[in-house]
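# step 3/5: fold
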Amino acid sequence: MTCTQLQQRLSALSAPSELAAIVGIQRGIEREALRTNKKGGLSTRPHPVAIGCALTNSMITTDFSEALLEFITPVSDDATQTLAQLRDLQKFTLSQLDDELLWPVSMPCYIKSQDEIPLAQFGSSNIGRMKTLYREGLKNRYGSMMQAIAGVHFNISFPESLWQSLQRQAGDNGDLQSFISNGYLGLIRNFKRELWLISYLFGASPALCQSFLEGRTTDLPFKPLGKGSLYLEHGTALRLGDLGYTNSAQSSLRVMYNSLDEYVEGLKKAISLRSDLYQHLDDYHAPTPQQLNKNILQIENEFYSPIRPKRNARSGEKPTEALTRGGIEYIEIRALDVNPFADTGIDLQQIHFLDVFLTYCLLKDSPLMSWDEQMQSQVNLRRVVNAGRDPELTLTRGEQSIYLKQWADEIFAQLHAVAEYMDQAYGVDYYSATIDDMATWVSAPDKTISGRYMTQLLQSNLDNGTFALSLAQQYQDQHACWQYECFDEAYLKEKAQQSIVEQKHIEEADTQSFEAFLDAYFQA
């Protein structure tokens, strides 16, 4: 039997001189949460001034809606610290809200009509108005209900020492940053091939409030529950499916990941191509614009992808410009549902798994990915989203049909080896313990997050919203008892006040009209 690239790399990295190379993985988390009232209805209040301005507060902002908060942790190599930072931010925010809760699941609370969902406001500056108009475009293109879905984004970068070690192993004498960018792209391709496993393990949106459909019909085999909930018997992550955060208009976009130039070129093309679907909506040249422009993507961030290559952008720099300038700096995983069983929306065990899984995706061989293979990975994901907990579910690998259980068992066999290496490097045992535990989830779908969620709903015959509301109240009480660990109230209040001053300075510094500002932005 030939030795695989994964085995070769693990063997080389396990040498005493190389073992510490992986130590220092950096992470950051962005957790979204809807603000709701005590009855579980969507908050219609504006973004609270006590937590600062969404435009300029780097740790507490908003996503699509005024009601959709986003908590952003600083970068850290300590996962426990990252979760403590999230708790600090949530505790502070809840203390400043007047009788409001943070919705603990991905799918929205009861919303009578999408017109109830207020667009996020970022002040009167040109950049602030652009952000709101972008959201107006999202509303008019896809509807506000889809945009009210919450998720967790997991950002990760591997230490330079690991890249240097891998480059030495490969006998590559070229530019280190080019090697890093190509390595991250290989990780992305492997992640996309086996993304379905993330949906199986961590999908947490098998049920939704019937109001989400707004009377639309669907071919999905929903079953009713309680007074107004729907669920899929074997579903995992409706958020990632056709009802969730997707854009069918983007299905024709050939954004691929075989080289950085190819990825950037695909994305640039998408933001310059006119779309027949959106020509009827007025753009920023009109007195009352309904979107930024009439292209398939208004801006690069509109591209919906479960994983993105990223580099921190300079002021005024577009994401693709940052990547072209400096190469890939880190990876953003966007495929995670909010974990309803974690007050932070993600728990330590998930982070440990992601560390191992993403290291596995990086170290194993990653052939170039054809468009057909990329589309097949989407088909596999859709099957798991809708029926991942069906013991008889099959997926497609290459030209073959394979049972989910068989493929997952094969992946976990390789994850065990990666986990043992990481335990040795870090001097811990929790990576192997995590993989040992989650390997049992493959043959026991009820252990998955979606399985546990549905067990809770079905055993109690609770509406999805009723269950989520009880969790929201429970987590509010927990946060009230939580003692600040990384920040404190005075510091977070100061950050909020600073953000108000910063937004005012941005507004005062504007010299262009809004139209001239956007002319310059899109011509750059």
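# step 4/5: annotate
The chain is about 45% helix and 10% strand.
# step 5/5: archive (pending)
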